[in-house]
Design goal:
- By secondary structure, the chain is of the alpha/beta class.
- It is 40% helix and 19% strand.
- It has ten helices and ten strands.
- The strands form two sheets. It has a seven-stranded mixed sheet with strand order 6-2-1-7-8-10-9. A three-stranded antiparallel sheet has the order 3-5-4.
- Helix 5 packs across helix 6.
- It is globular.
- Bound molecules: S-adenosylmethionine.
- S-adenosylmethionine binds next to loops.
Length: 272
């Protein structure tokens, strides 16, 4: 059974979550919030949302705070989700960089890792001599729980059901013995990815060299328009001239002021 949440309690949680993660919860998300946090209240022995709130406010830098945000965020993802972006990477971006043989990519809301591993597979499978290339992918998320899964590189076999078998063979190891039913990413993919926790709401990101491509897919949908605008303009600063930004297919920058050139509904380019 879910705990009851008063209007005032909902407002306080809503404000806290917005300030910390940019996630904007409308009034219609009240029961969703109550149901996602109820188990946590029960486990911690709290009787009301106010008690839990007070505990969170005691130390906003605590693990409990991260845990609460983990419970709120939606982590749905897939290998080769929205495949047009990977085709664009293969057909347009990589040929443009063929001389330099270097690419820097940021998967900025990477969830459990399917997105950065798909990027890595695309890189290896699209160029002639991958060993001659310098590939680097930064994969980040707010949630430490999903990041831990991502870094482990272990998935249920079901997750690659729709991935072509030859791709699975090249890039995954099938579990044996007690690991039957699991698959694991091969080391060559893991080697080019660095996972770290990073909040998109931060004013600055710990990224020193300019990027060729930023993936920011299926997270902006949870942000309000001013937050989206700030974010997209920040991304612009971290891209090389001519660099690209991919957003999710259900997202749009139509109402957001930004300096990018729109190449397709979800593909943007910084001026050269
Ligand atoms: C629905 S998943 C999208 C995963 C992947 N990009 C995709 O399209 O398949 C959204 C992710 O955004 C993350 N997220 C939410 N707010 C964030 C923030 N402020 N900073 C970084 N990541 C955030 C969530 O933890 C979640 O893993």
């Amino acid at each position: 059974m879910d705990y009851a949440i008063s209007t005032e309690e909902f407002e306080r949680f809503r404000r806290l979550i917005y300030d910390e993660s940019g996630i904007s919860l409308g009034e219609q998300k009240r029961s969703l919030l109550a149901s996602r946090l109820s188990k946590r209240l029960r486990d911690l022995g709290f009787a009301t949302f106010s008690e839990y709130y007070n505990r969170l406010m005691e130390d906003p830098a605590s693990d409990e705070f991260t845990r609460m945000l983990d419970l709120i965020s939606t982590n749905k993802t897939d290998f080769f989700r929205e495949p047009k972006h990977f085709e664009f990477l293969r057909d347009r971006i990589l040929p443009e960089l063929a001389k330099a043989k270097q690419i820097r990519i940021w998967s900025s809301a990477c969830s459990s890792g399917e997105e950065p591993y798909t990027i890595a597979m695309t890189l290896y499978d699209s160029v002639q001599n991958p060993s001659e290339w310098d590939f680097k992918i930064l994969a980040s998320d707010l949630s430490t729980r999903v990041l831990a899964r991502a870094a482990s590189g272990v998935y249920d076999e079901e997750r690659v059901r729709d991935v072509p078998p030859e791709v699975v063979k090249r890039h995954f190891l099938r579990g044996r013995g007690s690991s039957v039913g699991n698959i694991k990413i091969k080391p060559h993919l893991g080697q080019i990815i660095r996972f770290r926790r990073l909040n998109l709401m931060d004013d600055h990101y710990p990224i020193k060299s300019p990027l060729d491509l930023i993936f920011c897919r299926n997270v902006m949908i949870y942000f309000d328009r001013p937050t989206q605008e700030r974010l997209v303009n920040k991304f612009h600063r971290y891209l090389k001239p001519g660099g690209y930004l991919f957003i999710g297919h259900s997202e749009s920058l139509q109402w957001v002021k930004h300096p990018f050139k729109a190449l397709a509904p979800t593909i943007y380019q910084k001026e050269r």
